[in-house]
TrEMBL record:
NCBIfam families linked: aroB
Record keyword NAD present: yes
One GO biological process term: chorismate biosynthetic process
Organism whose genome encodes this protein: Flavobacterium macacae
Entry EC no(s): 4.2.3.4
Listed transmembrane segments: none
Taxonomic placement: Bacteria, Pseudomonadati, Bacteroidota, Flavobacteriia, Flavobacteriales
GO terms under cellular component: cytoplasm
Any matching Pfam family: DHQ_synthase
Annotated protein name in UniProt: 3-dehydroquinate synthase
Gene: aroB
InterPro entries: Dehydroquinate_synthase (IPR050071), DHQ_synth_AroB (IPR016037), DHQ_synth_fam (IPR030963), DHQS/DOIS_N (IPR030960), DHQS_C (IPR056179)
Cofactor(s) it depends on: Co(2+); NAD(+); Zn(2+)
Domain (3-dehydroquinate synthase N-terminal): residue spans on this chain: 62-174
Length: 355
């Protein structure tokens, strides 16, 4: 698969990625390399990654606990301390090997340590490959509120190796599919249509779909790196999806949702809002609902859940001047940003989701 040129860095794929990484290491005079991995990727992915790394530099592996609940400033403090103890300096390089938590958090730690050191992303989950590692967003959660603290700062490169997907359980693969579905809905109807029947897809097909998904996200980010305009399109499904994810994360009576599971529900809900605001036809909405529900288990929303979820919407990063802003579909394959939805319409969306 061809390299994709992003805004100031390349995105390499599979075998070519390792040769480009090793060439990069030989051409740049780093003092040492720190590899960030969570407990899962340290065990399952580093045995695949490390044999492909060709360098005489000292390498330190720094592991932290896996899970969204550890994507916080406390983990960052521990990592900053470890980097300091291991004599990290301005010429150190961080390589983040892992899913979205590792790339988000690792990129933030590197971007702030000694006012910023270079880093590379090696995403190991489908979600991280098509979304988290692309676009330069790095950050952590504030309590249960998603990505409230962070920076936009690009890596030196991204290396997408799809063989890491063989280590993923099915729920993690589905979680990544949510972002790929979103890319079709907001940008390319033909791409969306490819997901109407996943039964006939093989490994090579998935590689091509991943490459296309990265191309879509990169194309949008290149137009608007700092999210002042069209990049907000990537938040379709995320206004309600992030609120749902945060609510389930902080509520001890609820099972924690994977990011993609919450976003899948968010896309159905925001698809309903798009339909009711006459931006898409009812047939389009029903198609979206049917396809997503064929891939993801339905989430149970009780009446008592709705008010707290709505209250969390005020923390969405797209909001301006106290107004909750949605990115809504304008037909499948197109988007309208900075849209408003009344509370009653949001409640109706949940009622329809439950029906």
């Amino acid at each position: 698969m061809n390299t994709i040129q992003a805004n100031g860095y390349p995105i390499h794929f599979n075998e070519k990625g390792y040769s480009e990484l090793n060439k990069f290491l030989s051409e740049n005079k780093y003092s040492n390399i720190f590899i960030f991995a969570d407990s899962g990727t340290n065990e399952q992915c580093l045995p695949v990654f490390l044999p492909n790394l060709e360098t005489d530099l000292a390498i330190e592996i720094i592991e932290f606990e896996a899970g969204e609940e550890n994507k916080n400033i406390e983990t960052c403090i521990e990592l900053w301390k470890v980097l300091t103890e291991l004599k990290g300096d301005r010429k150190s390089l961080v390589i983040n090997v892992g899913g979205g938590v590792v790339t988000d958090l690792g990129g933030f730690v590197a971007s702030t340590f000694k006012r910023g050191i270079d880093f590379i992303h090696v995403p190991t989950t489908l979600l991280a490959m098509v979304d988290a590692s692309v676009g330069g967003k790095n950050g952590v959660d504030l309590g249960s509120l998603k990505n409230q603290v962070g920076v936009i700062n690009v890596p030196k490169m991204v290396l997408v190796d799809t063989q890491f997907l063989e280590t993923l359980p099915q729920n993690q693969m589905r979680s990544g599919l949510a972002e790929m579905l979103k890319h079709g809905l907001i940008y390319d109807k033909k791409y969306w249509n490819l997901f109407s029947d996943l039964n006939n897809l093989n490994t090579d097909d998935l590689d091509v779909l991943i490459h296309q998904s990265v191309e879509i996200k990169n194309s949008i980010v290149m137009q608007d790196p700092t999210e002042n305009g069209i990049r907000k399109a990537l938040n379709f499904g995320h206004t309600l999806g992030h609120a749902i994810e945060s609510y389930f994360l902080e509520n001890d009576t609820k099972a924690t949702l994977l990011h993609g599971e919450a976003i899948a529900a968010g896309m159905i809900l925001e698809g309903y809002i798009s339909f009711k605001k006459e931006l898409i036809a009812e047939s389009d909405y029903l198609e979206i609902k049917t396809v997503i529900n064929s891939i993801f288990d339905k989430i149970i929303f009780e009446e008592k859940d709705l008010a707290p979820i709505q209250e969390l919407l005020v923390h969405d990063k797209k909001n301006e001047y106290g107004t909750i802003q949605f990115a809504l579909l304008d037909g499948i394959g197109n988007i309208k940003i900075n849209q408003i939805a009344e509370n009653e319409l949001i409640i109706d969306a949940f009622l329809d989701y439950n029906s």
